[in-house]
Structure formats: structure tokens, C-alpha cells
Specification:
The complex is a heterodimer of chains A (about 170) and B (about 160). By secondary structure, chain A is mainly α. Chain A has one domain. Chain A contains nine helices and no strands. The two termini of chain A are about 25 Å apart. About 10% of the residues of chain B have low confidence. The longest helix of chain B has 18 residues. Chain B is an alpha+beta fold. Chain B has three helices and ten strands, in the order H-E-E-E-E-H-E-E-E-E-E-E-H. The chains are: A mainly alpha (about 170), B alpha+beta (about 160).
């Protein structure tokens, strides 16, 4: 028989709190709205990978090989692609597709939210290192960091229920 | 065995045929040129277009804020058609020394929907590279080139 304990450290998001704590509530709405948009972004990115045949074709390898001539030959990105990404493109393809799906679902549902955001940030950093850097990654990285630093899954999401059931579990913090 | 051989041949040829489909001029396998990529198109006049000079278009990478804006563009394209992309473009004309000289910095509109690249002096059909003037008269043909090599040694 499972038991739940009330979470005293983080109060849930409630629309009625706007009357008493307007700025705090506004901040939470901002974070939650961004979390859902960001989750959708990752979910669709993952769907694109599955539909694009990332798992069972050499699509990633072709993409990386086409990218190399566009990069500075002496850059770290070229070394990264040629020494690491192309030889291991199969496990990397799987990791990207399933990882983006997990990050998207986690952020949308508020499930293991901080870990999902950490995974999203990891992919952003790896895309940047792997020769696909552009300024949008800075913004996306900052957004992902926002979900790592805030307990948004406990404000609204499955993390709140799971943290009540499994107090102290770091997955649902 | 002959039908089987025919099937095998078809299996081999069909993907090859799909792969052979030409990519639109100045595009990537995923749509427009990547945000940090630049592209060059060399346009040469058809025979009989004596008054038309060759043109080299240098389509530049997106600037910082345009790159940031691609987050919204990416989300938007999930629900609506892809919108044209405007990029800074430098136009070059042949120089007297055989190289290329920049004549104008302008904005070109790259559109995957209409398959056109529009610049103030004309437009290019991205499917076949046909080069047109502003009156839609075909004046030549354009191909993607390695512009850095072409411009090395020119008065940039």
C-alpha cells in the first residue's frame, strides 16, 4: 500500500494565487508556459527523427558528412564529427531520437522535469560542439537551464504526485 | 529467376532514382541553407543576351537575432507553411582583371514554397537555375559554386 506525504517545501501552482502573489504567479506561468513550448519543441524534434529514419538508416552519418565541408577544417567540430560522431553514428542516432522524446515528454508532463531539462541541455551543448552551433542554441540552453533551476514539475506536473509518494527521490525534485 | 532479378534491379534503382532528385539551388537537405551557412550562385547569360553581364550572388549567413528567430520559425513550420527567408546578399560583377568586384549589398528572399530566389535585379528559379530579369524574361542560368575559391584573388 502506497502512502503519500504532503510536500511542504514547494506549494503547487494555483490560479487563485494571482490575487495574493501576482508577481510570483506570473513568474511561474512564464516558466510553465515555456516548459510546455519547449517540451513540444523536443517532442516534434524527436518525431522528425523517427519519421526521418534516424534509427534504421545512415541519415545522421550523411548529415554529419555533409556538414564537414561547411566548417573550418581546423575546428574542433570537424575533429569531433570525424573521430567520434561519424564512427559511432548508430548509437548516437538512437540516443538523440529516444533522448529527445524522453526530454519532450518529461517537460510536457512535468515528469522527472529537471532531468529532462538536463538531457535537453546536454543535447543542445552536443549539437553546438558537433558543428551545428548557432545563436538559437544560446537561447534554448538558457531556457533549459531555467527548468533545471526551478522545481516546475512540482508546481504543476507528475513530479509533485511522485515526490509525495517517493519523498527524497532525486528523480522528482 | 528472371522476375526475381527484375525485382532486385527495381529495388536497387528506385532508391538511386530518389537520391538523384536534384536539390533546389542554395538549399540544404533539410530546407533552406543552415543558419550559419553561406551560399554562392554564379549566373551566366544565355547566348544572345549580349547586354547582360554575369552575376555572382553571395548569400550570407543569418545574423545573431535572425538565428535566434529560427526557434519560432521552426515551431511555426509545424503548423503552417514555411515562410520565405530574407538574407543579406552581396552582388558581384566581372571585373576588368578577370576577377569579381562587389557592386551592391542587398537583401535576397529565398523561398522554398515558390522555389525562387528574388533579389532587386531579378530572380532565379531554384528548381532548374533559370535566371530571370524583373520582367520575368529568362536571361541566363545559375549554378551553385564554391564562391570562396572564385573570389580568391578578386577585389572583394
Amino acid at each position: 500500500m502506497s502512502t503519500t506525504v504532503p510536500l511542504s517545501d514547494v506549494d503547487p501552482f494555483r490560479w487563485s494565487n494571482f490575487r495574493t502573489q501576482p508577481f510570483r504567479s506570473l513568474g511561474r506561468v512564464f516558466v510553465l508556459f515555456n516548459r510546455w513550448v519547449f517540451g513540444l519543441f523536443y517532442l516534434f524534434a524527436a518525431i522528425n527523427k523517427f519519421r526521418g529514419g534516424y534509427l534504421f538508416t545512415d541519415r545522421l552519418k550523411v548529415t554529419l558528412e555533409q556538414r564537414v565541408p561547411e566548417l573550418d577544417p581546423g575546428s574542433f567540430a570537424v575533429t569531433f564529427i570525424e573521430v567520434f560522431a561519424v564512427p559511432f553514428y548508430v548509437p548516437i542516432s538512437w540516443m538523440i531520437a529516444w533522448g529527445e522524446l524522453a526530454a519532450g515528454v518529461g517537460l510536457l508532463l512535468g515528469l522527472c522535469t529537471r532531468w529532462a531539462a538536463a538531457a535537453a541541455l546536454f543535447f543542445i551543448v552536443m549539437f553546438g560542439i558537433g558543428g551545428f552551433y548557432d545563436a538559437s542554441l544560446i537561447v534554448l540552453g538558457a531556457i533549459a537551464l531555467m527548468f533545471i533551476l526551478t522545481p516546475s514539475g512540482r508546481w504543476m506536473g507528475l513530479d509533485r504526485r511522485l515526490a509525495q509518494r517517493y519523498p527524497g527521490n532525486i528523480l522528482f525534485r | 529467376m528472371r522476375p526475381l532479378a527484375l525485382v532486385c534491379l527495381l529495388i536497387l534503382l528506385v532508391p538511386a532514382g530518389l537520391r538523384a532528385e536534384p536539390r533546389p539551388l542554395l538549399s540544404s537537405p533539410y530546407g533552406e541553407l543552415c543558419t550559419t551557412c553561406e551560399g554562392y550562385a554564379l549566373c551566366e547569360p544565355d547566348a544572345g543576351q549580349g547586354d547582360v553581364q554575369a552575376l555572382l550572388l553571395h548569400v550570407q549567413s543569418l545574423n545573431f537575432w535572425q538565428q535566434v528567430g529560427t526557434i519560432w520559425s521552426w515551431l511555426r513550420h509545424l503548423f503552417a507553411p514555411v515562410r520565405p527567408e530574407t538574407r543579406t546578399t552581396v552582388l558581384y560583377r566581372p571585373a576588368d582583371d578577370g576577377g569579381w568586384t562587389p557592386v551592391e549589398e542587398t537583401r535576397a528572399v529565398l523561398d522554398m514554397g515558390t522555389q525562387r530566389i528574388d533579389y532587386p535585379g531579378g530572380w532565379i528559379d531554384r528548381r532548374d537555375g533559370a535566371w530571370h530579369d524583373t520582367g520575368d524574361r529568362r536571361i541566363g542560368h545559375c549554378v551553385a559554386v564554391n564562391g570562396r575559391e572564385l573570389l580568391s584573388g578578386s577585389n572583394e
